[in-house]
Structure formats: structure tokens, C-alpha cells
Amino acid sequence: MTHDSVDDAHSRPAGTSDATVAALGKLSEALEVVEEARGFLYAFHRRCGTADLTLGEAVDQLRDAGHPELADRIETDLVGRNVLAGRWSFQVVEEYDDGYYAAFREHERTAREELMEGRRHVFEAEMKEDRRTHGRPGHAATPEDSSRG
């Protein structure tokens, strides 16, 4: 007989209420949004760096094309300029990572440890269990169940 059910790492601990599972699922969902925002912030960081390097190339080309005064003005005012007061984009990323992001992750982890024995994605695992078609190819509960014939 095959196992074909949620693995222990994603099963709710005994006595855990539906309301607790739902609340921690919502907290996990919020963390996923924060993770996505962090990705956008890193993309912002990379785009700012690329823009500054490209701007430097444009300044060089303006100078080479015979427009040294314009090149000097742009270079002096924009090349290497802070994106926010006193900060390049890497400093924005670091402040976000060390502040809001770190605090958010810590609260989510602590809540899971206190209420779910540290287990992750229990809400999602139960949703998967409810929505999948048991015994159907492509609907296995775990990777191990997929390999059982």
C-alpha cells in the first residue's frame, strides 16, 4: 500500500486548530509578499547600477562627440548620485534586509515554532491534499509518492 498523503514535515501538530493553521497560512502569505518586494528591491538596485554605468558611457560619448560642457554638467550632477538622501541603492537594500525584512522573517519563524512546531506551509499542504486527485498521475502527495508505481 502506498503512503500518498501529506508528509510529516507539512502535517499540523496534534491539537492545532483550523483557525491557527489559517492564521499562520496568512502570515506565510504576507511573508511571501515581502519576499517578492525584496526581489523588486534587488531589481531596483541592479537597474540603478546599470543606469549609472550606462550614464557614464553616455557622458563619455557626449564628450567624444564634442560636447564637453554638457558632459561635465551631467557627470557632475548625475554620475554616482545618491538615489535617496545619503544612499546608493545597495544601502537601501542593506537597510531593508537588516531592518524590516529581518524582523518580518523572525516573527514568522517564531510564530511557526510556537504554534506549528516549526513546520512550514501546513496551510498550503492541506490545500494541496484537499484539491488533488488521489491516485492520479501528476497528483502525488510527495516526490517519493511520484516514484511509486
Describe, in short, the structure shown.
The chain is an all-alpha fold and 149 residues long. It is 66% helix and 0% strand.
Distance between termini? 10 Å
- Overall, the morphology is elongated
- What are the low-pLDDT stretches, counting only 5+ consecutive residues below 50? none
Rg of Cα set: 25 Å
Number-wise, the strands total 0
H-E string: HHHHH
Give the SSE map.
Blueprint: H1 18-64, H2 68-77, H3 89-116, H4 122-131, H5 143-146
Can you give a write-up of this model?
It is a single chain. The protein has 149 residues and is mostly helical. It has one domain. Helices cover 66% and strands 0% of the residues. It has five helices and no strands. Helix 1 runs antiparallel to helix 3. It is elongated, with a radius of gyration of 25 Å. It starts with 17 loop residues before the first helix and ends with a helix.
Based on the model shown, name its key terms.
149 residues; mainly alpha; elongated; 5 helices
